[in-house]
Every structure is written in structure tokens, then in C-alpha cells.
Amino acid sequence: MSLFLVKGAGVAGLAVAYELLRRGEDVDIVDYQDTVGQGASFFAGGMLAPYCEREAAEEVVLTLGLDAADWWDQVVPGAVIRNGTLVVTQPRDITDLTRFASRTTGHVWLDRNEITDLEPSLSGRFEKALFFENEAHLDPRRALTGLAKTIRNLGGLFHLGWGPSPKKNYTAVLDCTGPAAIPHIPGLRGVRGEMLYLETGEVTLSRPVRMLHPRHPIYVVPRDDHRFMVGATMIETEDDGPISARSLMELLNAAYALHPAFGEARVVETGVGIRPAFADNFPRVVETGDGLAIAGMYRHGFLLAPAMAKQAAIRLSNGAALREEMIA
Amino acid sequence: MLKLYETELSSRLLLGTARYPSPAVLSEAVRRSGAGIVTVSLRRETSGGKAGGAFFELIRNLGVRILPNTAGCHSASEAILTAKMAREVFGTNWIKLEVIGHHDSLQPDVFELVEAARILTDEGFSVFPYTTDDLIVAEKLLAAGCRVLMPWCAPIGSAAGPRNPSALTAMRAAFPDIPLIVDAGLGRPSHAATVMELGYDAVLLNTAVANAGDPPAMAEAFAKATDAGRLAYLAGMLEPRDMAVPSTPVIGKAVFS
Ligand SMILES: Cc1cc2nc3c(=O)[nH]c(=O)nc-3n(C[C@H](O)[C@H](O)[C@H](O)COP(=O)(O)OP(=O)(O)OC[C@H]3O[C@@H](n4cnc5c(N)ncnc54)[C@H](O)[C@@H]3O)c2cc1C
Asked: What biological process terms from GO does the record include (chain A) (predicted)?
């Protein structure tokens, strides 16, 4: 049995901590924030949408992401909502929808009535939609709180907030510091994502809805308490300053176009997350001086953390665990 | 060889850098297109005045000439500010000047455009104006100091191809010595070939490549079509003939009927 140190309690750090504990290792987790999941993970939509993401991502994102919903369901029971994803567009941008369909699999076309059956709030608003039945979503904040609890139950030790870092003899250190790793890991860059939360009782959605647009595609992910996460911009910069007026306007405009009732909603939160990414936008487990790093989760933190965490845990864990994994 | 503001270029294709699936795909598309110039949006990839360091570094490392643009600017003053920022960030006097008149259609505001072109030229910029196919606007841009014109052939991102080929032909005829680059509206390689056959000097693409299923392959397809169109223009093409009207009495007809 070995002792590992996980630096960073975001989705990557927590996922790998869990995977190591599951293999019988000991794990300490440090984060300078007082609670888990306050980094990029805090701002995520929480979509587990491997089929939709295939539109702009390589096939491997689909294959590695397929099991994500099962993984989350297992480690945080009840966290995953399996209602699929709905993709719509304004009539003028219908070619974007056909293009989306041609780039992806796992969907069916819905007509006006079928859209109403699925999402009564959107009744009469769209003639056509794509439905990705086998996708899922979760609330990232709740999921990470739940995952931290699972980790504690398995014996993982958290050292949160500023304080003396534990001085122990670690077998290896796992750098899961998300965007903070950008200066240290060659090839890593930041992609800014701006988002907001709307609150209204006038719209009900049961699943994430993506609205395509040539310049400002958005998605709306329903949460409990009449809240909706609206995201997200993709800007090539590491600047994590407050959301710009332009982005706010674009996101609100798009939400309003999806449903006019969003015009009356309250803006209860705005946020900016930096997605760490490599040039191909695909994450990697890379070697560092004292261990491994899980880096470049890009816009697939919740989708790909399970697969990346397993990969890292297998590499770190002892040979017995490795064999066991291969048999499993 | 194509000559833009005293710079000679072997490729007649310019590539935009926005909306690719990843920077890696973008790099590969630039490589396979053989493009000698890429355009970069300053406004899109900056926020609060802070530039997208890593992305801009990546663009610099492509090893091609950078033509920063003022995409997203809606007034002359905004565009001028962005051009100055671009000069700082990329160390170039080249600026692709876009002043958008309508947020939705992205149609250029030619009045603000001419104004900004004049001021920027006075300040030492080499201005590449994104304009319509209007000849009078073109004249004003040249009077303002522009030595290149970049007319659209259809609205940005429409992929509609040349909507008004006779206007493009008229523009070519009106400005035989000015490099003309079709910017915006090209959807498929045949569109690029068509405007090159009309005698245009180059084409600029972004969405048609970036949003293709396989952007690097599409970049190469466009490069080939651009070259083909240019070669055909130089080689001299046959004009279509109306075969419905006989040019001589049909001799055989009398015999066999
Ligand atoms: C707007 C937006 C929407 C998104 N939507 C989705 C989505 O729908 N689905 C999806 O799968 N992904 C989504 N993502 C992507 C996802 O959020 C990221 O990929 C993921 O959160 C990155 O996780 P991480 O653990 O690598 O980094 P982080 O979550 O940033 O975690 C890093 C942690 O390390 C800590 N830390 C940093 N430096 C140190 C240090 N020196 N010592 C100790 N601790 C340190 C930080 O405090 C932080 O807690 C979205 C991202 C954004 C911005």
C-alpha cells in the first residue's frame, strides 16, 4: 500500500483520489480553497454529453466519455439525471442543425409535437430538434460535494484551506490543479468560459437544451430550485476577470430567444471559469518531477475525469492493482 | 506573384483562425492550405484588454504572416483602437479593417469603414478593408489610402458563394491594378474557383474551412480550387456558346430529312 498526495480538489483531483482509494491506496488531498470544487469545476454545466461533443471533438472523447454517467452514478448515487439532451436552433440557422446531425450519432429527429411531449415549456417554439436520448447531466457542485463524502468514507484525508501542507513521505504527487498548472505544463493554455445562473418559475426543463448559432451557441442546463445554468463562451485567453458586458448580453439574448420567459428571470449569479487545454483540446496524464499530472480537461472535465483518473490510478498503483484492473 | 503592400506571397489563399475544433486542427489546416497569411481576431480572443497569450503565441508559431482583424467592431473609433492594440500585440502595421453595421447580418458599415481607413492609413497602417462590391465605396477606400480591397461575395458565414458575379466582374474591370481579395461568403471550393476565374487575386476563408467535417482536408481542397481558378484565368477561358441558335445553315439536315 502506498500513500499519494493529490493536489487540487476539482473534478480531476477528486476523481483520481477516488480511483486510488478504490484500489486500496492511501490518499491525502490538498486544496487551498476551503471547500472542494471551487476551481473551473465550479462553473461547469455538468453535461455528460459524449455524442453532442463529438460534433467538434475527436472520436476518443465519445468512446472515453460513454461510461461517465455510469461512473458518476456509482460514486455519487442519485447525482446523475439521465434525460438526454435536446438540440434546437432558430429557423434561420436550420443548416447548423443539419450540420450538427451529420457530425454526430446517437440522436433522433423530433418534430413540433414530439418536442412538446418532451419539453412542454418549449411547445410551439421549434419545428425541429435533435434528441440525444443516451446523454445525461448532473449538478457539478452537488456531485463534487458528494464525491468528497465518498472519498472521506473510503479513508481519504482532506487538507483544505491555507495551512501547513502535510509533511509525509508520499509515493507520488498528483498535480490536479487545473488552470493553475498552465504555467508549469508545456503546451497547456486557458480557454475562458463565461456563464450565468437564471432563476425563474415560468420555465421548466428536464434536460440540457443546446441552441446552435453560427457565432453564439449556448446551452441551458436545468438545476433544482428553478435555476438554470446558461453557458458558455469560448475565448482564447487565461484572463479570469468578471464576465464582459458583451458576453452577458449574448448569453441573455440567446436564453431569451430560447424562451421569452427567461427575459423575466433573475440573474442570480455570473461566473468565469478557465478551461485548461492542450492544443488538441484533449486531456492527458503527463509525468512530472514527483509523479503525474492530470491536465487539460478543457470542456470535458466531468465527462472525461473518470477515464483520465482511471488511467492515472492504474499507472500509479502497484502491479497487483494493475492486474486486477485488467481482469475487471 | 501576389503582391500586397510590397510583400510578395506565393499563396493566394488567406485563412481565418476562428472557430476551429482545436488549435491543433487549425495548425494542420494552415499547413495543408499552404496559406501565407492568417487573420486573427483581436476582439474575440481578448477580454478586458488582456490578450489571449497562449493562443496568440500559437498563431505566431504557425510561421505565416499575421493579418490581425477588427472583427466585432461597430464604429470607426472602436476599430482604430483595436488596430492599435493589434499593432502592439503582433508588431505589424497590417490590419484587416472590419466595421460592422449590423450585428445580425454582419454587413459592413461602409461610412465608418472609409473614415477608419483614412485615419489608420495616416497613422502608418496598411489597411485591408472588408467592404461590399460597391464601386463608389471602393473608390473612396482607395482615396483614403488603401492599396488592397476585400469585397464580400455574400454575407459573412452565409456560405452562399458569389451572389452577384456581374458586380464582382465590374469591380475587377474598374480596378485592374489593385489587388482584390474576396472576403466572406465563400462556402465551397467551386465558389473560390469561380471568383478566381473572374480575375480576383486571392480569397479569404474562415467558416467554410473551420466548420467543415475535416478542416485540414477542406483547406487543401480550397487551395487547389484557388490555384485552379487562377491558372484558368491566366490561361484564357472559352466563353460559353449558345448552341440553340445555329451559326450556319445546317447542311446535313436537308440531306437526311
Ligand atoms: C463555463 C464552463 C462550462 C463547462 N461545462 C462543462 C460540462 O458541461 N461538462 C464537462 O464535462 N465539463 C465542463 N466544463 C469543463 C470543466 O469545468 C473543466 O474541464 C474541469 O472543471 C477542470 O477540472 P480540474 O479539476 O482540472 O480543474 P479545477 O476544477 O480548476 O480544479 C483545480 C483545483 O486545484 C486547486 N489548486 C490550484 N492550485 C493549487 C495548488 N498549488 N495547491 C493546491 N490546490 C491548488 C484549485 O483551488 C482547484 O480547486 C466547463 C467549464 C466551464 C468553464
From this structure: thiamine biosynthetic process; thiamine diphosphate biosynthetic process
Interface mutation target, options A54, A104, A194, A236, chain B, most CBs of B under 10 Å: A236
Give residues 34 to 93 of A whose Cβ lies within 8 Å of B.
Answer: 56-57
CB A242 within 8 A of CB A228: no
Instruction: Please state the residue numbers annotated as binding site of B for 1-deoxy-D-xylulose 5-phosphate.
Output: 157, 184-185, 206-207
Q: Note the ipTM here.
A: 0.84
Please check whether residue A146 lies inside any domain of the structure.
Answer: yes
Q: Which residues contact A134 (CB under 8 A, 6 or more apart)?
A: A51, A82, A84, A106
Domain containing residue A97: 85-133+189-277
DSSP secondary-structure letter at B103? T
User: Exposed, middle or buried, A100 (CB in 10 Å: 0-12/13-18/19+)?
Assistant: buried
- Enter the DSSP assignment of B163: S
A235 touches chain B (CB under 8 A): yes
The grid cell for A74 is 456509482
Number of domains within chain B: 1
Instruction: Specify the CATH number for the domain of residue A195.
Output: 3.30.9.10
Instruction: Quick: pLDDT tens for B20-50.
Output: 999 999 999 999 999 999 999 887 666 545 5
Residue A64 lies in a domain: no
- Active-site residue, B3 included: no
Confidence label for A150 from pLDDT (cuts 50, 70 and 90): very high
User: Which class for A323: exposed (0-12), middle (13-18), buried (19 or more C-beta within 10 A)?
Assistant: exposed
A162: domain CATH number? 3.50.50.60
